[in-house]
Amino acid sequence: MQAIVLVGGFGTRLRPLTETMPKAVVPIANVPYIVRCLKYLEQNGVDHVVLSMGYLPEPIEKVLKHNPPAVKVEFCIEDRPLDTAGAIKYASGKFSGLEDRFFVLNGDILTDIPLGELLSFHISRNAAVTIAAVPVADPARFGVLDVEPDGRIRRFAEKPRVPPSNLINAGIYVYDRRVLDLIPGSVPWSVERQLYPEILERGENLYARAFEHAYWIDIGSLEGYLKANFDSVANLHAASHLGSMYTQWWRDCVPAKQTRPGIWIHKSALVSEQASLHPPVLIGPETRVEQGSVVGPSAVIGAGVVVDEGATVSESVVLDDVFIGRQATVKKCVLSSGARVEERATLVEGSIIGRMTVPPA
Length: 361
Prior knowledge:
Elements: E1 2-6, E2 27-28, E3 31-32, H1 33-43, E4 48-53, H2 57-66, E5 72-77, H3 83-92, E6 101-106, E7 109-111, H4 115-124, E8 129-135, E9 143-147, E10 153-158, E11 167-176, H5 191-201, E12 206-210, E13 216-218, H6 222-237, H7 244-253, E14 257-260, E15 263-265, E16 270-271, E17 276-277, E18 281-283, E19 288-289, E20 294-295, E21 299-301, E22 306-307, E23 312-314, E24 316-318, E25 323-324, E26 329-331, E27 334-335, E28 340-341, E29 352-353, E30 357-358
Parallel strand pairs: 1-4, 1-6, 4-5, 8-12, 15-18, 16-19, 17-20, 18-21, 19-22, 20-23, 21-24, 22-25, 23-26, 24-27, 25-28, 27-29, 28-30
Antiparallel strand pairs: 2-3, 6-11, 7-13, 8-11, 9-10, 14-15
C-alpha cells in the first residue's frame, strides 16, 4: 500500500518550538514524531510513503537519514503552498505507479487506528474517499461530521454551536485514484473547502468510518503535545492506550532503562539519589539531575539537560541542552532546545519557551 503524509504545515500553535524545527520532527518521548509515524504506517502494511513537505524540509531529511525507516520514503517539496488537496495531487506524482487506492494522513496525529479496517470499509462502500472519524468530548472545537447510520457523510460542520454528532475528522483518509481528477494541478486547492464539497455535489460516495475506541491525539497544540508525550512514556511501562502492537517497538526505540515502574533513565544520565522522581518520567542521555530536585509526575527530559539542585519539573517536556537553575519551577510547559531557566525562576503554566533565558521573577 501507498500513503501520502502531509508534513508541510508551519506548526503555528507550537511556536516558538517550531520556529527552528518542523512539527514533524518534534520529539514524542525523545523520538522524532516522523519516526513514530513511519513505524505506524509500516505496521499497518504501508510500504511506500511520500512526504509532502514545504516548511523546513531539511530537518526531516536529516532525521530520517539518522533513523532510516523500513518503508520506502520519497520527498515531495512544494515550491509554493498548494493547500491540502493541491499538495495531495502534487505528491501523488512521486509514485511511479499509483495504486487504485492510497492512504493520506495529516502529519500531526498520534493514533492506533487500524488502517486495514479503514481500507476494508472503504472498499465495501465503493467510496471515493473514506475519512477515519473519532469521537471527542468537545466536538464544537473541531470540524464535525454529520453522517448517516451507514457512515455516508451528509455534510461538514466547522466548529458548530450545536454539533450534529461527536465525531470529528481524524486526519486519516483512503482515496480512490479517480478523486485526483477533481483537483486542478499546480494551484492551491483545499480538501475541506473545495474537494469534499465537490464530491458531495457530484453525488459520489463520501464516507466516514468511526473508530470509537481508538487512541487519537493531535500533537499540534500544547495540550495535545504534552499529553502525547506523557501517554507515550506511560506506554513504555505497559500496553495501555496505544495498543499492544506498539509496545515492544516503543520499548526498543527509546534508549533508556526502566529503573522502577514508570521511571526510564538513559544509561549515561546522572541522577542523584537525593532527587525525587515521580512517574511517568523519561530522562535522556547525558542529562544531570541534581540532589533535592523533583522531576515528575509526567516529565519528559531530553539529552544534555541540567536540572539543578532544588529545581522542580512536572507535567512538562524539556528538549535537549536546556539548563534549569537551582530552585526554579517548571510546570505544564515545553522548553525548546537551548533554553535557560535561571535560579529561582518560575515559568508561567502553559508556556512554550524558545531558545532564551528566563530570569527570576
